[in-house]
Amino acid sequence: LTQYTNLPCFCGAQPNVTASDSTVTKVKGVFVVLVRNRELHELRWTLRQLEDRFNHKHNYPYVFLNDRPFTEEFKRTISWVTKAPVSFGQVPEEHWSLPDWIDRYKMLDGINDLIIYGASLSYRHMCRFNSGFFFRHPLLDGYEYYWRVEPDVQFTCDIDYDPFVYMKERDLTYGFTISLKEIPETVATLWSSTRKFMKQYPELIEQHNTLDWVSSDNGKSYNMCHFWSNFEIGKLDFFRSDRYLKYFDFLDQEGGFFYERWGDAPVHSLAVAMFLKKEEVHWFQDIGYVHSVAQNCPSDREMQKKCHCDPLKSVDLWRSSCTKQWNALPASP
Ligand code: GDP
Ligand code: MN
Q1: Which of 44, 126, 295 has the most ligand 1 atoms within 8 A of CB, as the residue to mutate?
Q2: According to CATH, what is the number of the domain 1-96+133-159?
Q3: Which of 157, 233, 284, 325 could form a disulfide with 307, with the two C-beta atoms 3.0–4.6 Å apart?
Q4: Ligand 2 midpoint to CA 31 (Å)
Q5: CATH superfamily name and code, 99-132+170-333
Q6: Predicted ipTM beyond 0.95
């Protein structure tokens, strides 16, 4: 473990997590944040809100991950924000480097700035890491549920209950706030690769799957619907499962993380669609959340009272959102 993790840092106040803090004992939940040193203040801005809106009552721990070592300044400053335990880890090199089966020349052909992040190799490593490796990091060993957080996002409503407990009590596997359509050029062959996978491993596909959400023509093509993975509350065992790992390995061999710009959002979403029933997935409509151009803001009047967002700006009202279609899926028998 010390090979690729720094020691956990309890630089701030000692974590004051007692047995009376019942949620901590009920669910082994953790916040996971992949972040760069230079995003320190954007992250502090986000965590301040998350603490004020939710975690000051629960003290769920944070795991911060980075492909480079965190600076002392980063660790010190972040630990001001919370009294929950914080640990800082480095991503092992083999989870952030080009696999040897990737054709360098073919990859360079696909690097272009016509699409957002199309010219960034680090972005491709990030998407591959979030698709196939974050849940294997030793600092996440022993946790059941993770909540992914990114620098610069906002939490705009009080969260007066515990989403980790909510997920566990209902045996939910995946929770989201925002769904949208992917940029087709970034995933040109993701669907054909996924179809090949399903053909090779039909026994891994859930009988009451939600594939109708990602294909509107009975499987011929991908309709680009995906959950935005910058917010996720998920069961780690789902990603650690044999079926998910087989899917990730299959995609990794296909090479689209580097030849195209496959995002972890469509990859997670296609896995959800193949492997999960509708009832295992939850839209956190009540969690006000802003990431760059898109936000989730509850339209329900009671929910609104705890928020400072404009419900008319909520993405689920946009035509490019897929949340309506998700809600319209039939319940599995
Ligand atoms: P976007 O949400 O698709 O616009 O992409 P972001 O720039 O927000 O990146 C997604 C997440 O990965 C954020 O938490 C970033 O801080 C993190 N991230 C992106 N690139 C890197 C990188 O090269 N190194 C590290 N350590 N984190 C990264
Ligand atoms: Mn982001």
Answers
A1: 126
A2: 3.90.550.10
A3: 157
A4: 15
A5: Spore Coat Polysaccharide Biosynthesis Protein SpsA; Chain A (3.90.550.10)
A6: yes
